[in-house]
Amino acid sequence: MGWDGEGVLAGRYRNLGRIGQGGMGAVWRAHDPELGREVAIKELRVPEQVTERERSVWYARMEREARAAAGLRHPAIVTVYDRVMGEDGRPWIVMELIRGRSLAQLLAEQGAVPARRVAAIGLAMLDALSAAHAQGVVHRDVKPANVLLEGDRVVLTDFGIAAVEGDATLTGSGAVLGTPAYMSPEQVRGERATPASDLWALGATLYAAVEGRPPFTAPSHGGLFVAIATQEPAPPRCGGPLAHLLHGLLSKDPAARLSPAQVRDLLQAVSDDGEPPLAEHRPPSPEPATRVEPASTGACRHPVAVRGALVAAWIAIAAALLLPRDFADPIGLSILLEVAPRWLEVALVVAILLSCLLWNMTDRPAFVLPAVAVFAVLLTLAAPSSYDAIVINELGESDRAPDIGFGLAWAWLAGAVALMFAFAGVNASLEARMPRPALLRTAVVIEGALAVLWLPLVFWTLGIGMDADMSRHVGSEARAWALMGVLAAVFTVWVAAQAASRRRHRGPEPAR
């Protein structure tokens, strides 16, 4: 039994066209006149060269899919309506028609997905898997192509190789069931798949959504299996609870993976604290999703850290150039235009223009840190050191030390804030690479010290001294000490803010 001459299956379902086709068969859109609705019908196609025994195994596999999926009732699981048995023993599965596209297709079209959208997808997938596991069903083939998106709805489909508790195994030795890039280490080793295996695949799927690529790639299945079993995935470029989630789900040891409750807590933390999701402005496609492998790359965004660093750096330059060294002196810009070498003027203009390009690169905080460091060196060289000279004019003069005037003092403070914002941007990825909290705490202290001492360090690197008696130009000795106090306060706030951020984003510890 199949489509008859009029394109009707089982005397009921009228063929409206093929939705997609894969290695195991095809999916068709059809109309059910009895209930007045459109449905999706999955057809199994077995290669001609297989033996009758192998053919019966594949048929039993699809029969089991229908039985497994039909027993599940959840909004995030595709609904099975009917099963039609062909005269050759081949089952046809009639199921809910999803009008949307797969996560794999979304990744292929736009690259990585924003963090809060990933969290929403992950929560729906977790609900679907939890419902399946409660019924004794292990999906065994969770991947982006099996996650369908219909507006705000997320649907897990294709239980074609699902393992149902109590069923006999349908695979012979050497058979590979599942998509290699998303198989768990225990599946790669030929061990029995468990709910923890589905959680690994959930982690691999969310990793692909965040990064735009699977956690492991290789030119052959053998190389891919070796990588999954023995290597660690590259740390995701986003940090916080999302990085902890991916690290906890992709543990080689099933017993060490996060529990569903821990996964839910971390995903909820991302949903509550992540960036706003990017709305998909176009309506859902009238055609159900086809399966396309993901492509492109992406990363989590850090707009506050990146843009905060740039704004503070611009304030530092403005303070050094538009404020005077002493209230009786001309502003720094007028001195710069008179005595600075032309290359320094050009370098400042180029640095400011290039920094504007970083404004929208909120997914590349590592680029901002060196940019702020370059700003620090340039503004130090361009800062006024007397009423008719700038710091660069003091180079090679061992008997002179540039004065720290009013403008450079404010630039010092703003530069420290800029560096702290830049360090905060890179600390998210640093946290993912430093699972030991003590290492990150040490790094935070070192970063804070570098930030508040950046001006003396630049002077020291340039081989010139620095006049520490700022009372002559800052206004009074009290104001000079006030500047030191503000810098110390900034350091204290930095350490406290980073500690609070780690506590907020750490979430529950992985199960051991």
Polypeptide structure, described:
This protein is of the alpha+beta class and 512 residues long. It folds into three domains: 1-97, Phosphorylase Kinase, domain 1 (2-Layer Sandwich), CATH 3.30.200.20; 99-160 and 177-300, Transferase(Phosphotransferase), domain 1 (Orthogonal Bundle); 303-506, no CATH class. Helix content is 49%, strand content 11%. It has helices spanning 52-70, 103-110, 115-134, 185-188, 195-211, 221-230, 240-249, 260-273, 303-322, 332-339, 342-357, 365-382, 406-433, 437-452, 454-462, 471-474, 477-506, and strands at residues 8-9, 13-21, 25-32, 37-44, 80-85, 91-96, 101-102, 137-138, 147-150, 153-156, 163-164, 384-386, 389-390. The strands form four sheets. Strands 1-2-3-4-6-5 form a six-stranded antiparallel β-sheet, with helices on one face. A three-stranded antiparallel β-sheet has the order 7-9-10. Strand 3 (25-32) and strand 4 (37-44) form a beta hairpin. Helix 12 (365-382) runs antiparallel to helix 13 (406-433) and helix 14 (437-452) runs antiparallel to helix 17. The chain is elongated. Mean pLDDT is 78; it is low at 163-177, 274-299, 471-475 and 505-512. Residues 13-278 form the Protein kinase domain. Residues 272-296 are annotated as: Disordered. ATP binds at residue 42.
